[in-house]
Structure formats: C-alpha cells, structure tokens
C-alpha cells in the first residue's frame, strides 16, 4: 500500500522534531537518534527479497527521495563492528532511526499530564452511548463524557468499534524478544534484528507466530532468535540474556493501520496499528491535529476498514 | 576477615586472578575463594566506576561480577573454581565486538 509507505516515511521524517518537542516539554528524552538503520541478510533469498523491497520503495517515493540501498558484505562490515561471516549482505537506509519505547511511553504520559490530560488506569470500557452531540463512555473506573472518542485500545478495538458503528478487524500476531545484559556501546546504528539501546543492552528479535492471545516465551522460538543474532554478531555469544518476553502485535488483515471516523457516530474515531513507535511522530504531529479538527484528510480513506469488505456487484433496482 | 571453617579435607587447586596465582579448595565458588584471599573489590560499576564486591553470595545482587576465561559479567558467587581458571575484575560495562 503506497499510502502506508508514504505515511511511515512521513513519520520517520517527523521524528526528529517530535523527539525534540517531547524532550523539551517533558524533560524526558525518548533516546531518539537517527543514524540510519541496517537490515542484515543471511542468505541469497533474503538478500533478493530485500533488493526487491527497496526497488518497490524507490518507485513509491521517487528515487531522489528514497536513499536506501543494498550493500555487500564488505560495506556492511565497515559500518558494523563484529559483523559475523554468515552475513552475506544487506541494506542500509538513512531514513531509519532508533527510539526507546520505554522512554517514549514515559515521555508521552508526562506530556499528557502536562497538557492537563488525565490517565485512568484499570478503566475497561463496557459501553459507549450517544450523549447530546457527544458520547458517554462507561468504564470500570466511572463514566466519562466527551465530544470526541478515539478508540486506541489495540486488539480490544475489535470489541469497541461496533459500539460506534465502526469495525476494527484486528488479530494478535505474537512476537518474542530477548534482551542481554548491558555492554559498552558497539553498534553505531540499529539493525532490523539486533539493536543496542542507549543503556547498553542488546535487543534481539523478532518472530511471528499466530497463536492467539498466548504471550508465553517459548524455548524453540527463543533459540531461533538467539541463533540468528549470534550468527549476525558472534560476540553476542559472550553476553548473557537477562530478560525475554513475548507480546502481541495488533495486526489488520493486510498488516496496515486502520484510521477512520464513524459515519454513523461523528466524532468517534478508530486508530489501530502495530508500529506505534515508528508511527508516533506522524500520530502526534499529523493525525492528532486531524482528529482535534474533527476530520481526517482525504487520503486517509485508504486506511478505512472498508477495504477489508468483500466487494460485490449487485443490480440496483 | 574471612576464614575457612575446617570441615573435611578437599583437593587444593589453583587459579589465576588478575595475573596472580591464588589457591582454592575444590567446591569453592570464585567469590568465596577471592574473599578468602582478601580480595574485596571484584568490579567497578558501568555508570560511575565505583568499586563493588560480593554482597548477597546467592546470585541475586550482581555485585560480584567478574570476567572468567574471557566471558564478561559472570557472577563470581555462582561459579565454582576450576583448576587454571583465569579471573579478572569486571571493569565497567562489558566490552564485546570491537576487539
């Protein structure tokens, strides 16, 4: 979906400004740096798939605006100390960066409170009803009234959306992550599978499993993640894994976000995506102003859930 | 400060700490052997480089970290001494990859 390619790129371009604003307003830095990013490939098939993807992106953005390129082993080894022999090549993009999801979440909460917002924990929604020109939202923590309601509950949107005439056909896709102990900074930029945080830990993953709402760490997948990470950067074998976890991506049928305002319940919006960190820049600086204004831009029609409906022709009597 | 409570006679063995030869008994943990040898400082912290030594002796506090046979950040209290083992202080964050 070319609209998504442009949207995620727009977010990458907005991130520097977004990170600066957040840190300036809240004093909490999301540890953002834009050093570019690398995707490492361990086989010819992976490298070919990567090469094809970059060619498609070049066509979407226009070659002059998309500077990612395929690199051979030698070029990659110059960029990444300790690169394993198993890496045959990869790609590098100057548009990529790294942010700490933990610090980002803290900064967003701090920003919300500073903007006189309130966060109510343990407030599971049980009903949404019209209330004059706005809505009444009944939760476990009380009833809230508002002119606008934005459903941003991830997988729970599936149940919430029909309450306001929307649909959010999203399902869980499990991913697992391993985290090592801290080490002195080695990697100057993130790679898609291994990245080093500002504190020095290495994050390794990802994985894709369709296993419902199960969030247990499983040894077979953990072993595969560790194996791939150690082949990519053999020095990781010396470090101990100190944490492992699994979480659920919020996936729509085609993997792209859902942004839509209800036709039957104006002022009610659904927001669903699985790349909340990458898209945070565009969500904060582009999407939120549209919601505040009460209307999504024309091109957002591409992100409405109607795209998942089966298109059937019928005669109009 | 520390002294061994004499129980049964066990095999003596030697290992290396920061280039010095130290004695231990079969079954000693690295932390116990180093404390018996009078070594109180086993690591410096990654953030402020302040000195730390064994504290909990049961694998929880991570204050006794050392490098053992080239592997950084081993818990000295959880590893038994083996003959010829090479142990060094863990100075700051582990260094991997660039060497």
Automatic annotation (TrEMBL), chain B:
Q: Which InterPro entries match?
A: 2Fe-2S-bd_N, 2Fe-2S_ferredoxin-like_sf
Whether Iron counts among this entry's keywords is: no
- The entry's protein name is Putative sarcosine oxidase alpha subunit
Query: Can you name one GO molecular function term for this protein?
Result: oxidoreductase activity
What keywords is this UniProt entry annotated with? Oxidoreductase
